[in-house]
Structure formats: C-alpha cells, structure tokens
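Write out the 3D structure for:
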Amino acid sequence: MIAGIPKSNTDKDFEYFIIPSEYLAPNNTKAHKMWLSDPGKNGRIHKDSDMRNLHLPPGESYSGWKIDEYKNRWDIIEVLLD
C-alpha cells in the first residue's frame, strides 16, 4: 500500500493506493532502468541506488505508468482476507 500524505496546511484527505506487487515491481523496475539509461543534468550519468520513486497522481512514473486505478482499492485487500 502506498499513502499520499497531504501537507499540514491543507484540508486534503490522505490518499491510499493499493497496488499488487505483481504490477508495482515490474513497472517500477522498468522506470528505474529507463532513468538509469537516460543522461541526467548536464549529461551526467545517473548513479544507481536502492532508492525508487513512485509518483502519485496526477504524476506518472518515468516510464509513463500511472497508478490512478489503484486509488482506494481496498477490495484488493478484502479478497485476500476472505
């Protein structure tokens, strides 16, 4: 589960994204590989690390993957609990 925590000076609600690992892992891996292969600022090579980013809506990952469809998908967890 991924949570979007709003800034303290807003009245926005928390956002929850329930993303099965079978979709999250390959999409995150793809985006990270693309990021590594593309040049960074001033043409520098990106350095690999254990850090991974997942962009909350309205953003999208480096590969163009969006997670909008997983917002508040508590049903995914409920099925696993049955």
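The radius of gyration is 15 Å.
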